[in-house]
Design a protein that fits this description.
Layout (H helix, E strand, L loop, with lengths): L1 H26 L4 H4 L14 H18 L5 H24 L12 H13 L27
Helix pairs in contact: 1-4, 3-4, 4-5
Bound molecules: zinc ion (ZN) (2 copies).
The site of one zinc ion has 5 residues, from loops.
Length: about 150
């Protein structure tokens, strides 16, 4: 079962790193037309940018279906990607953006750092001058204790 755990972690880590890359170079690049809906105030519950979640979710579903019979690496990577998607939703969509008002501002230092790092990403609504493209890998500077 150690193999399962390794592939879950691989799937999870692959999402953070490919997500960082896709966010920085594609979403804030040629796919800005879609992603900008996430950087502008929106009146509707859904954003065009949610298509990316749908895409990553579909990749996870396909991997799980391909691997479900053998319970091989594809299955566990699909689980890892799903886990990432679930936590991404909870932290990014619920905790940071409060699309659902489930909890207040985080108090835990790691969650606070994620919160601040992603707020820094949203300080701009432009394509070119954004920072901090990952979610779970938080640069050290956001852990600094400061006022409030
Ligand atoms: Zn962005
Ligand atoms: Zn965001």
């Amino acid at each position: 079962m150690i193999k399962a755990l390794v592939f879950i972690i691989v799937g999870f880590a692959a999402m953070e790193f490919s997500g960082w890359f896709i966010h920085k170079y594609l979403m804030h690049g040629p796919l800005w037309m879609i992603h900008k809906t996430h950087h502008q105030p929106s009146k509707s519950a859904l954003e065009l940018n949610d298509l990316f979640s749908l895409l990553f979710g579909s990749i996870a579903v396909v991997l799980i279906l391909l691997g479900v019979q053998e319970l091989d690496y594809r299955f566990w990577m699909g689980i890892g990607i799903s886990l990432y998607g679930f936590l991404y939703f909870i932290l990014h969509d619920v905790m940071v953006h409060r699309r659902l008002k489930w909890f207040d501002r985080p108090k835990n230092p790691f969650l606070k750092a994620i919160f601040k790092a992603h707020q820094a990403h949203h300080r701009t609504n432009q394509k070119d001058d954004a920072v901090s493209f990952g979610l779970f890998v938080v640069p050290k500077e956001f852990f600094k204790n400061e006022e409030k």
